[in-house]
Amino acid sequence: MAFKSEEEGYEVTAVFSGVSADKLKNYKLLKDISLDLLKKAGFTVLDSSEHEFSPQGYTFMVLLAESHFAIHTYPEYSTIYFHLYSCGKKDEKIIFDGLKKVLEPKKVILKKEAVRVKF
Question: Domain limits at 64?
Answer without folding.
Answer: 9-115
